Every structure is written in structure tokens, then in C-alpha cells.
Batch of 3 targets.
Target 1
Amino acid sequence: MSEPIRSFVAVKITPEAAERIGAAQARLRAAGRDVKWVDAQSFHITLKFLGGVEQERLAEVWRATTEALDGTAAFTMRFRGIGAFPNPSRARVIWAGIVEGAEELTEMAARVEAACETHGFEREGRPFRAHVTLGRVRRPAANPALEAAMGEQVEVELGEARVDRALLMKSELSRGGAVYHILEETLLGQEGELNGHQEEG
């Protein structure tokens, strides 16, 4: 049996949008020294985290996922504002918001969720909320400086990105943090389109 692959289904954003969001992230770093920041080149929206999955099973669930996404049209996301889960005063996860395209992402996530459930994956316990993760606080606690820095960017415009494909990605842990690689991709708006892909991301 093959080694389990730590994997997830996701949407990537364009380098141009990543640059703008990364600039907003940079303005938070001085106030967030206890935050594990995501590298701008790795920004993405997770539709479904699969965890460690054997290669054979992963191929099956990806096939089901691409079938579930058949007929999904390409769309545009627009990013605005910095916030945090559960809230800025007790931040655990710092994010960039999505003000256009969130409904389409939610629909995609629901389709992926249903496809994965048919292959034995448990449904997520919390509702899907479209966002780009910027960083995770190592030891969540009140941080007035970080809260203020986020407050200054509540309405900042962060650009847009076209979504024309869904990706199967793997995560490899390293000393510098998680490194993501694209395993497969399926184009949106094209019935049954399935492309193998080996680009690193």
C-alpha cells in the first residue's frame, strides 16, 4: 500500500492578487510576531481538506470531485479587507476577505464535500467560509497592536483573480512550514475536463 498523501482540494489565486494581499499581510507582521505567516506564493482557498490519503483512494475521490464540478462555470473573485477567526480581538486565523465570488466558492465547496462524503470522508463540522488564510497565531491571546493593525485594513481593496480551475494539492511539512504542490487540476466550464499537473505551488 502506498504512503498516505496529505492532500486537499483548493483554488489558487493569481500572482497579481497574491502580491496585493501579501502587501497587506506585510503591514501586520511587526504586530504579529507570534504568528506563523503563510508565504504569499502559497495563498489559496481550501475547498476541502482530505488529510493523509493513500494514492489509490486519492485518485478515486479526485475522479468523483471532477465529476461533481462538471458544468461549474469560471468566475472572478474580488478580495477586500483583513479580519480574523473567531474575531480580531482573540485572533487564531488571520485572513483576507472575499467580497465577490464567495457564493460560487461556497457552491464548489458543497459539491466537493458531497463527492468526498460518498468516498467515506466526514463532512466538515463548520460551515464553509470563503477566505484566504494569511497566518495562524501560535498562542492566541489579546494583542491590541495586531488588532489595531487589522482594523486599519478592514476595507482595503486587495484586487481580484479569475477562478477557472480546481486543484488537488498536497502539503509537505518542512522546517520553514508547509510546502504545497499541485498534483492534479480540473478546468471549470468544461464538462469532464481532467488534466494531470505536476507544477509546484
Target 2
Amino acid sequence: MKMTIKIKRLSDDAKVPAYAHLGDAGMDLYAREGAVIKKGDMAMIPTGIAMEIPEGYVGLIWDKSGLATRHKLKTLAGVIDSGYRGEIQVGLFNFGRGNYAVEKHHKIAQLLIQKIEHAELEEVSELSDSSRGEGGFGSTGKH
């Protein structure tokens, strides 16, 4: 049985999220209005929609690959909890060399809906050994 997510337009001309292709993991999110993101700066881009994500699930906002690779735009603060009912906004940071103009109704990010687990936490004085141990960033690439 397919999950249903209720979508509410907060403005008449807001574009509802959509999957571009059958089998896509993420649905596209669209800008409600135009904006300019200056190089080295961040902007919150409104989508003009709110949604009701079922309990036990989360919405995760991820980059659009073309915007990330061609224009160096990175999404920020991309967790939408099931209890949130406000406008979905996309934080975009411009790592590019110039300003970037977001146009109204353009795809700005993608939203993945995923099941969540709530873990029971247990504080201990020691953790078990593993093959990796405390090896951090870059440790698996060393010979």
C-alpha cells in the first residue's frame, strides 16, 4: 500500500512537489519566488507548500545534482519532522564563484521520505572493539 502525504499550497501559484521519473527516490521541490544568492552566502528559499509527513517518517532535503555540480549550490538544514506543519523552506548555500539567480518555479532541491527508528540509548563506560576502532576522517584510505 502506498503512503499518502497531504500537501497544502500556501499560495495559489505554489508548485506542488513531484517525482520526475518512476522510481526516483526524491521528489522535486520548487521555488515559490525568485531570489539571488550571493557567492559565499546562504538564502532560505520558500516553496509555498506545507505537508503532513506521517508519524514514523521524516522528510530529508537533498541537493539537486545539477545545481550542486554545475553551480556549487548546497542544501542546508534539511530535516522535516513529521510534526512540522509550516512552510517548507530550502536553505541553499552558494559555494560558486558568482551570484546565483533562483527563478520562480525552478527546481531547487529534492525531498526524500524515509522511515525512522528511535534508538534506545544506553550510557556505558566502554565500547566494544571493532576493526576500524577510532580511525576517523581519511583513515580507510591509508595503506
Target 3
Amino acid sequence: MRIPGQILIGALFIIGGLVLGFGAIFDVDVGVLCLPTAFILAGIWLLLRPYLIGPDSGIRTTILGNVRYDGSWQVTDGEIWMFVGDVRLDLSEAEIPLGETTIRLFAFVGNVRVQVPEGVGLAVDSIAFLTSSRMFGRKRESFLAPVHLRSDGYETAEHRVRLDVTSFVREIRVERS
């Protein structure tokens, strides 16, 4: 199973390798071209991103800091972008729609804590350089390999939350509330 972050990271490695290869073959200083090109592409991507994910998806961005959803809140498809920080999702009192809701997290370093009530299915897909995960007491470490975690009965649960995580170093902890 591929997750969007895994595809993005793979594409960036391929593009970087091609640029460096062409630079070596044609004796071009790619360093002079890479930084401006990266800024231009990042700007285009930031402008187009809201249109690519759809009108009902929320995007939350923070450079340094924590993102916390708890108490009574509406779970919707969305994305969380951060450089360094922790994410806490407490689904105990949340209003979770029928079917599957997807939350994507893009970050460099941090922790993810999820509280899941009985009857709610949770799937966590993570791609990171280093991932440490614990879901309902089961521990798993991963180095440069995707992590796919599913709660028991995920496929048949009426209310399902899917968490796609892309980061460099990530700790994920999932507990029942």
C-alpha cells in the first residue's frame, strides 16, 4: 500500500538524482539552479494545494508548536503541516462521520498521540526515516520502511479514521479511551 507521502519522498529523490546526474554530465553548477527552482516550485505548490485537496478539506499549518484536537470537535478530512511539534487527537468526544475520514500529517520531527474510543476504527500509515509506534500496547520500530497499523475490526467499523503520516523522525502512540 502506498501513501501520498511515500510517493512524494520517492519523487523528490528521483528528481534530485536526475538533477545531480545532468549537472555532472553537462558540467553545470546545479547548486546555483536548485535553490531558486525549489522556491519557485514550493510557491506554485502552496498556491495550488488548496485546489488539489478539495473544498471540504482543512489545512492547518504551524512551524514550531503543537496541534491539539480534544473535547467536542468535528473530525473532517484534512492536513496538518508542521516542522517540529506534537499532534494530539482525542477522538473520545469527537463527532466522527460515517465511513472513512482521512487526516494527513506532514512534519519533520515530533510525536503523535491518538485516543480512540471503542467502536471507532483507526488506521495509521507512516513513512519516515525512523518511526517508533505503539498501538494498543503493540510496539513496532521501523527504519526506512513504511508502518501500517490497523485497529481490530477497522474494515467493518461504521466510523473509521485514517491517519497518513509523513515525516523524518516520528513517534506514534495510539490508546483506547
